[in-house]
Amino acid sequence: MRQPIIPQLNGPEFLLWEQAQSDRYELHAGFVFAFARGTAAHDRLAFNARTLLESAFPPPCRTFGSDVKVRISSNTYYYPDVTVVCDALPDDATVLENPRIIVEVLSPATRGYDLVEKRSAYRTLASLRAYVVIYTDMRRIEVDRRGFRGQWETETFDVGEALADDARLSLDAIYAGTSIVSDQ
Description:
Layout: H1 11-19, E1 25-28, E2 31-34, H2 40-56, E3 62-64, E4 69-73, E5 76-78, E6 82-85, E7 95-96, E8 99-105, H3 111-122, E9 130-134, E10 141-146, E11 152-157, E12 161-164, E13 167-170, H4 171-174
Parallel strand pairs: 4-7, 8-9
Antiparallel strand pairs: 1-2, 3-6, 4-5, 6-8, 9-10, 10-11, 12-13
């Protein structure tokens, strides 16, 4: 179980505090958590997803990695592995608002947090059309998509392509360069 590392902070306090830190942290409901470190497979999967989304959403959309945080609410900020934003923003932005797609690559240590807490928080974002979860220990992608009436639907893929908003994500392309290979 992840434990907060300091007492509760509000959003502005967290943003100011984090600027003075050498490591990255996330803020969930006012509590600060250390940002999980990744593995080579984690990085490759995030890179592959970012590359596919970058080509699926040309400008004015922009695709970002885990160096830029997303504001969920006034007291919750996360660093997703990949974020697609189609609104204008300055080059020096450190916080993204109005994400269109968010991708999280699961780590064993954060799996429950990503699948429950973050999934629930991301679904509150009015701009979000898809939340994509990529597994590192098996060939599996889950995509939460917002339906016409605002309801969320989850679909699981282990072959072919995953559909995330207007993007088709080939599982072969996502898992390329990792030890998880095609089942075909």
